[in-house]
Design brief:
The protein has two domains: 176 residues, NAD(P)-binding Rossmann-like Domain (Rossmann fold, 3-Layer(aba) Sandwich); 90 residues, N-(1-d-carboxylethyl)-l-norvaline Dehydrogenase, domain 2. The longest helix has 18 residues. An eight-stranded mixed beta sheet has the order 3-2-1-4-5-6-7-8, sandwiched between helices. The chain has a two-stranded antiparallel sheet with strand order 9-10. By secondary structure, it is α/β, with parallel strands linked by helices. The termini are far apart. Bound molecules: 1,4-dihydronicotinamide adenine dinucleotide. The site of 1,4-dihydronicotinamide adenine dinucleotide has 26 residues, from α1 and α4. 1,4-dihydronicotinamide adenine dinucleotide binds next to α1 and α4.
Length: 297
């Protein structure tokens, strides 16, 4: 296994959406060569360009040295095929939250990467043991769960599955620190720690909304201005994406044998069905049509 502090360390990131882009950015800033792959045509290249643009803007504003921004951008490479990740020391997956799709991706990856490469999943809630259940070498696989937006959120959950070796947990912990994160080792339980402990923040707010006690804007204002949370539950769900937080909520609820504190609502599901996903679709609990967050119809 490669030393996670090695100068030439290379990281493969699969999935160039919100999370994959963020992971690629912090890795490039940590001095790591990044290869980013997405099945969506042009998505990986667009993601690399977006990161480079944001870093160069930060440098122009005097928020970071220009050479650091330039060097980090030069470490980003869009891969044309999954096979281009063959030489990577570590591969982190940040694709759609679907057990079968993730399993089949890891089956492909196992055939591509070297025998001592590490594999990790950024899943929000799927059991690491279930993703790894069909792997040939689950001992080199673990969860590495970042939070959105990755460059701002320092926490990362390191989640060993039932077969993960201690050396792999240690290596992913070292890697997380190199990425400027604060790693926390957590158990492979439903929702891990953050999405279990924090779930009721969303479900209580959804219940209050369903009971028509208050609007999303009012509930968010109370949580921000009265209780001191940085974001209200609805703006947070719009940032996460309803296509991510609805299945996570449903999964954690089912896994807790129907604990009513963790139950979602019909409106939450309806928003998924009508593709009102939040910021990524332009409309969720709020409307982002003109750039500002306004109450959604
Ligand atoms: P996203 O929808 O923004 O991006 C997913 C990307 O994966 C898309 O670009 C899609 O084209 C690509 N993709 C889908 N299947 C693929 C495949 N087989 N091979 C390669 N690329 C593929 O999703 P997001 O929000 O980045 O989430 C990704 C993962 O991270 C999910 O497992 C999610 O649960 C997890 N996560 C999401 C968080 C959030 O706040 N959005 C927070 C922490 C984890």
């Amino acid at each position: 296994m490669q030393d996670m502090n090695a100068a030439g360390l290379s990281l493969g990131v699969v999935g160039a959406g919100a999370m994959g882009t963020g992971i690629a950015q912090v890795a490039a800033l940590g001095g790591i060569e990044v290869r980013l792959f997405d099945t969506r045509e042009g998505a990986a290249a667009k993601s690399c360009e977006g990161i480079a643009g944001r870093l160069s803007k930060r440098a122009a504003e005097g928020k970071m040295p220009a050479d650091e921004a330039r060097d980090a951008a030069a470490r980003l490479n869009a891969a044309g095929a999954l096979a281009d990740l063959s030489g990577c020391d570590v591969v982190v997956e940040a694709i759609v939250e679907d057990l079968e799709v993730k399993r089949s991706l890891f089956a492909e990856l196992e055939a591509i990467v070297s025998s001592d490469a590490l594999l990790a999943s950024n899943t929000s809630s799927l059991p690491i043991g279930a993703i790894g259940a069909e792997m040939k070498h689950p001992e080199r696989f673990a969860g590495l769960h970042f939070f959105n937006p990755v460059p701002l959120m320092k926490l990362v959950e390191v989640i060993p599955g039932p077969d993960t070796t201690e050396a792999v947990v240690e290596a992913l912990t070292v890697l997380s620190r190199r990425l400027g994160r604060t790693p926390v080792r957590v158990k492979d339980t439903p929702g891990f720690l953050v999405n279990y402990g924090g779930r009721a923040y969303a479900t209580e707010a959804l219940a209050i909304l369903q009971e028509t006690v208050a609007t999303p804007a009012e509930i968010d204002a109370v949580m921000r201005d009265c209780f001191g949370f940085r974001m209200g539950p609805f703006e947070l769900m719009d940032l996460t994406g309803v296509d991510v937080n609805f299945p996570v909520t449903r999964f954690v609820h089912e896994s807790s044998f129907g604990d009513p504190r963790l139950r979602s609502t019909a409106l939450h599901r309806y928003m998924l069905e009508t593709r009102r996903l939040g910021r990524k679709s332009g409309r969720g609990f709020f409307d982002y049509a003109d750039g500002a967050a306004r109450p959604s119809a």
